[in-house]
Write a structure and sequence with these properties.
alpha+beta; seven-stranded antiparallel β-sheet; 2 helices; globular
Length: about 130
């Protein structure tokens, strides 16, 4: 899905991410196994601009059937908090880099460390203040 930028809007940073609901320990393992066998995937991308944060994702089932393509917007004027860090899972053996927006929406990423994410978020927040 193509993102249409607003007037005077510029893309600052982009990261591949997945949005997941929080589940307690044994349930998250069972849900992961079921999703694996059903071929359910939700690849996505977080795009930070100077006016909004956009989450673009597709829901795929049976490994190839696209069920849904969506864009979620968060206007920077409505932003209350953005945090980046590491969440531990499975008895602290697995660490996942996480971006939390407005205290509720959690986006997990691969390939970028928490320090890099924090520096990019600082860059995004600096454009808001201008």
């Amino acid at each position: 899905m193509k993102i249409v930028l607003m007037e005077n809007e510029q893309e600052i940073w982009k990261i591949k991410a997945r949005k997941e609901a929080y589940m307690i320990f044994p349930i998250n393992i069972i849900a992961g196994i079921i999703k694996f066998f059903l071929g359910i995937r939700v690849p996505g991308e977080l795009v930070f601009t100077n006016k909004r944060i956009i989450f673009v994702y597709k829901k795929i089932s049976l490994c190839c059937i696209v069920k849904e393509e969506m864009l979620e917007y968060t206007m920077l004027s409505r932003l209350t908090s953005v945090s980046a860090g590491v969440k531990n899972a499975f008895l602290c053996l697995i660490k996942r880099d996480c971006i939390t927006i407005n205290g509720t929406d959690e986006y997990f990423s691969k390939g970028m460390k928490a320090d890099e994410i924090q520096s990019n978020i600082t860059r995004v927040m600096a454009t808001i203040e201008k």
